[in-house]
Amino acid sequence: MALTRLLLDLRRLHHWRLHLWHGDHGWRSESGRQAEELAAWTAAQGLAITVERAGATGAEPLEGATEAAARHWRYGRLARLAASLDCPRVVTAHTATDRAETLLLHLARGSHRRGLASLRPRRPLAPDSSRELVRPLLGFCRDDTAAVCARWELPIWADPSNDTLQWSRNRVRHQVLPVLEQLHPGASRRISALAARLQQEQEPLEELLPLALAQLRHPDDPDGLDLKQLTALGPGSQRQLLRHWLAERAQIKLGAASLEQLVQRLQPHCGAGIHDLGRGRRLVWGAGAIRLSKAPPPRPSGPSAP
Question: pTM for the full model?
Answer without folding.
Answer: 0.76
